[in-house]
Amino acid sequence: MEERIWVAGHRGMVGSAITRLLESQGRNVLAVDRSTLDLRRQSELETWLRANRPTAIIFAAAKVGGILANSSYPADFIYDNLTIQTNVIHGAHKAGVDRLVFLGSSCIYPKFAAQPIVESSLMTGPLEPTNEWYAIAKIAGVMTCQAYRRQHGRRYISVMPCNLYGPNDNFDLQSAHVLPALMRKFHEAKLSRAPEVVVWGTGAPLREFMHVDDLARGVVCCLDSYDEYDHINCGPGMDHTIRDIAETIARVVGYEGSLVFDASKPDGTPRKIMDSSRIRALGWKPKIALEEGLASTYQWYLRHMANRAEAETQSA
Ligand code: GDP
């Protein structure tokens, strides 16, 4: 049977990276825009699946956001994510799609999990409160895949990435993750010659960052060669303090002013570095060093986002 891989969420940072990779391998990718199909509408989705008959699905559609967005809009994060993932996984089963890769996040693990975090730490302790609604939805997604595997023999798997960055990221300052937010703040501060840039929190939390193209290779590697009940971690196995990452981004952008830490903003979880030895054993390893990935992402930002972002700031 001819392969037809539906990348759900193909316009997002993760889905677009996976689509680029699959197309570069000459593989047949299906995509549908949000304006044509709202994944929250179960019957429309099931009709679309019956008509388009994917042979595999990569689920990269999600409502995502940084620490402020997650804690400000808990209802949106839990409702959108639970609804779209349940519709897609159940719809996939009904339409006879035997292969599905569900994408989660390292925030599914307990706030104080032993580091580096192994897959089996899931549900061994309380979650980080700033993103527990999103995390609960993603945990439910992992278990939904496991349920369809157990009851129906479906080959549905889950991959947990670390903090990601790259082209097509969200650069909106209120809803972005730390890396695109700081890239934009430093870029605009450089242009306006602002003497300082505010970085949220104490600067002490540690995060594991990876370029989205490295994740895309991990996801496609799992699609092709991982077929287990347990979810699998995907990260480079190195972390950095927010202070270090802020200094690195300032250097990449060429901002020479000072950094001010606003400790009234939340730090979130103190550390979340994952143990990714399981995916490494499949032959995957990351290729893009942090500073190189940041530099190419900044070039992407300059080409695609900088004018738009500045216009928004001026009209705000
Ligand atoms: P998290 O990994 O789920 O906590 O998500 P984020 O990427 O939003 O935040 C990571 C860390 O960066 C947190 O400790 C934030 O407080 C910190 N941070 C510093 N400056 C910023 C900023 O401008 N935006 C965001 N989103 N986080 C920031």
Q: How would you briefly describe this protein structure?
A:
The chain has 11 helices and 13 strands.
In which range does the helix fraction lie?
Answer: 40-55%
Shape: globular
Q: What class do helices, strands and sheet pairing give?
A: alpha/beta
The whole-angstrom Rg is 19 Å
Mean pLDDT across the residues is 96
Number of helices, counting only DSSP H or I runs of 4 residues or more: 11
Describe the structure.
By secondary structure, the protein is α/β, with parallel strands linked by helices. The protein has a single domain (about 5-310), classed as 3-Layer(aba) Sandwich (Rossmann fold). Helices cover about 45% and strands about 15% of the residues. The protein has helices at about 15-25, 40-50, 65-70, 75-95, 130-150, 180-190, 210-225, 240-255, 275-280, 290-305, 305-315, and strands at about 5-10, 30, 55-60, 100-105, 155-160, 165, 195-200, 205, 210, 230-235, 240, 260, 270. A 6-stranded parallel beta sheet has the order 2-1-3-4-5-10, with helices on both faces. Strands 11-8-13 form a 3-stranded mixed beta sheet. The protein has a two-stranded parallel ribbon with strand order 6-9. α5 links the parallel β4 (about 100-105) and β5. α2 packs parallel to α4. The longest helix is centred in the N-terminal third of the chain and has 21 residues, at about 75-95. The model has no long low-confidence stretch (mean pLDDT about 95). Guanosine-5'-diphosphate binds near residues 107, 131 and 242.
